[in-house]
């Protein structure tokens, strides 16, 4: 383990809200610590597409410094309402019950956190212009792969390949645990 086992208070609150909502699909602690570290380097507006119950947002908030702001969108209104509980008194975090595409006009973002679960939605061509020059994109929920091109479930992982080779970004795949990796890409 490369970090202390204690969790930031805001993350603990997010886990509590997730449990009460019966929501078990959320950002891993390993990815969360990466998000907190990256958020500490950002100013301006950060965003998350697909809030769930707010665990990823809580990790971002735990690392955020200064007057940065987080916008996060969750399509499922019940989950968005649960996440909003965590940040009800925090003017630096705004939780929207909306499709992530509604955030498109609120960028460009200094950091953008996405789930790789729907490759068509998070393809590099759909996301690139939402990130400011020098901005960071984090895509999580990849299965680590040592092959090139990357193979997942017997097929070329086109999404990962696109993000790792797109000339608009400098990108790397980072293992966050033995069974999980994230792609971190910086806009040139």
Automatic annotation (TrEMBL):
Coiled coil stretches, renumbered: none
InterPro entries associated with the record: SAM-dependent_MTases_sf (IPR029063)
Pfam families in UniProt: Methyltransf_24
Name used for this protein in its record: O-methyltransferase YrrM
Organism: Nocardioides zeae
Lineage: Bacteria, Bacillati, Actinomycetota, Actinomycetes, Propionibacteriales
